[in-house]
Every structure is written in structure tokens, then in C-alpha cells.
Design goal:
40% of the residues lie in helices and 19% in strands. The chain is α/β, with parallel strands linked by helices and 324 residues long. The termini are far apart.
């Protein structure tokens, strides 16, 4: 009984955030495509930042397709936060885009003046982490973990005399990842760059909270913002266009994989889901995964607590957020 109480207290230490006094400091790492739930995720992130739940320290691309970083910038500018640092994916990250090229259209419509290049995500990570208090930063990934592999392997530089592994251990409080399938399976963000995933999940030095494939799969959102009629919003445009054309077919709503990770990073995840663990996320070399409940690596994963529509309504409302 005492052990159970201790583990509950341990989890609370890592994941019970006090929004009323301390906004969660977030670095947002996104592939921003080929899927478009990233659009919902960055909108939820800005909505929660404007509500005082979190502070956006930086946004980095984990997809090496050329218009990913500008797409991130387009949304940051729309939400009146043009000064948020944006980083480009580390070399070797997957380079993927959607067949309907929605990223390119976002740039053409909402960011006509684009930068010629962006600093590396590794530079952004090291610069931002070095400037923050110890154990204060939450990293949220809703794409490949290519950047995190590069970060862990990075060497001391002008921003910090620490190695990447040491810098993460010192500055990062926890990592919330839309990754994996539970209790076992194979999920896109993990298996698409298996070498990076295999390295990162074996060597990451802080607690990890996973929002697995099975969580967002059943939470359907996007129609409300798509039908809002806001012609000035890249969020409304992206959802309307993609719901009508993504993968060559029209659908009513879209799964919400990425939004759940952002929601549970900025707010107490137990308000929305059950949190299971601690245990160990076992990564295999092919990018598939298994859950080991008998070894405590300070890994946790979500399972559903409420009917799917309850969470969908919360996310849909946040996705209707307008710039302050």
C-alpha cells in the first residue's frame, strides 16, 4: 500500500502542473504534415498559451520537407506570436508531404513572404534549453523523434558546455509524445524513422508520457472549425480543404492524435484520461513497440476515461480559438 502511495506521489510530481501560478514551458516538435491533425495541435497549443496554461518557447519541424518550417511560422504569425523561434528538421529526418500539398497552399495563402532558411532544430533546442531553469521544460512531440536523436547526440557548443544528454537531463522536466501503440503495436511517428526512435526511447533521461495511436484514433474533430466560415484563418482553411481532399476522399471529421498530446502537456492529463504506469516503453529495431509493466523507466501512457465525444468537444472548442 505504501509503495502504491509513493508511486502516485511520484507521478504527481512529474505530471501535475499548476497552471494558476506557473505556465508550462513547452517546446513543440511537429512534422506539421503529412497529416493535418498537426494544425489542430498547434491551434490547441496557442489557445492554451493565450489562456495562460503554457508558454511556447519554440516550435521545430521534424519533417524535412521544405515547407514544414514556414507552415509552422504561418500559424505562429496568425496567432500573433511571430517571435517564437522556429527550427528546421535535422538532416536525415523523413521528408514527407501530403498528396494534396496542403502545406504549400498554406504558405501561398497565408505567408507570402517566407524565409530562405531556418536554423537547425538542434540549435534551437540547445539555445532554448540552456536559457531555461533546471527541470522546467516540457517537450511535446507529435511527429518523428529525429530531432531528439540529434539533440541527445549533440556536443557542447556556444550555448552550453553540456552534451545533449546532459543538457536534456538538466533542463527537461518531462516529455509528452504522440507515439506508439499500447500495449503493443506499430505507429507511424515511431516506425517511419526507426533508427532515431530506437536510439531515443532507449536513452531518454526524463519521464515520458505517451498518447498512443489508439487514443486519437477514436476522437474525431475538425468539422466545427472547417464550417466556421473564417476566410482569414489558416486553421479553418486547412481543415475545410483537407476534410474535402485529403487522401483523395471527403470525410466528415478527422482523428485527433496530435491534439491529445498538447492538451496533456499543458494541463493535468488525469483531467481527461487515465494515466497508466510507471513501466517501460520497449522499442524494437523495426520501430514497433511493446509495453513492459514490470520495469520502471518512468514511462506512462494514456487510456480513455470519458466517451470519445466528450474529449472531441473539448478539442473542437479549443480549435475554434481566435488570435488575441
Amino acid at each position: 500500500m505504501k509503495l502504491k502511495i509513493y508511486l502516485i506521489a511520484l507521478f504527481a510530481t512529474f505530471f501535475a502542473f499548476v497552471q494558476a501560478t506557473t505556465p508550462v514551458k513547452i517546446i513543440f516538435d511537429t512534422d506539421m504534415g503529412p497529416d493535418y491533425d498537426d494544425v489542430g495541435a498547434i491551434t490547441v497549443l496557442h489557445a492554451l498559451a493565450d489562456k495562460g496554461d503554457c508558454e511556447i518557447l519554440a516550435c521545430v519541424a521534424s519533417d524535412d520537407y521544405p515547407t514544414i518550417s514556414p507552415t509552422i511560422e504561418a500559424f505562429n504569425r496568425y496567432f500573433n506570436k511571430p517571435d517564437i523561434p522556429v527550427g528546421a528538421a535535422v538532416k536525415g529526418a523523413p521528408e514527407i508531404t501530403a498528396s494534396n500539398h496542403w502545406n504549400d497552399s498554406i504558405i501561398a495563402k497565408f505567408l507570402p513572404k517566407t524565409k530562405s532558411d531556418y536554423p537547425s532544430a538542434i540549435e534551437i533546442y540547445r539555445k532554448v534549453l540552456a536559457s531555461q531553469p533546471d527541470e522546467s521544460v516540457t517537450i511535446v512531440t507529435v511527429g518523428f523523434v529525429s530531432n531528439l536523436a540529434g539533440l541527445l547526440k549533440s556536443k557542447p557548443d556556444k550555448y552550453s558546455p553540456l552534451s545533449g544528454q546532459e543538457l536534456v537531463a538538466k533542463k527537461v522536466k518531462n516529455w509528452v509524445a504522440m507515439a506508439g501503440a499500447f500495449p503493443q503495436g506499430s505507429e507511424f511517428n515511431v516506425f517511419k524513422h526507426p533508427e532515431a526512435s530506437f536510439y531515443v526511447f532507449q536513452n531518454w533521461p526524463t519521464p515520458i508520457l505517451f498518447s498512443g495511436f489508439e487514443i486519437g484514433k477514436s476522437i474525431l474533430t475538425g468539422r466545427k472549425v472547417a464550417d466556421s466560415g473564417n476566410n482569414k484563418s489558416p486553421v479553418a482553411w486547412a481543415y475545410k480543404y483537407n476534410l474535402d481532399t485529403y487522401e483523395g476522399k471527403k470525410v466528415e471529421k478527422r482523428q485527433s492524435w496530435d491534439q491529445t498530446a498538447v492538451l496533456c502537456a499543458a494541463r493535468n492529463p488525469e483531467e481527461y484520461f487515465y494515466v497508466n504506469g510507471p513501466g517501460k516503453f520497449v522499442i524494437l529495431k523495426d520501430g514497433s513497440n511493446q509495453w513492459d509493466p514490470n520495469e520502471n523507466k518512468e514511462h506512462y501512457f494514456l487510456t480513455h476515461k470519458y466517451p470519445y465525444q466528450h474529449i472531441a468537444d473539448i478539442i473542437d472548442e479549443l480549435m475554434m480559438h481566435q488570435p488575441k
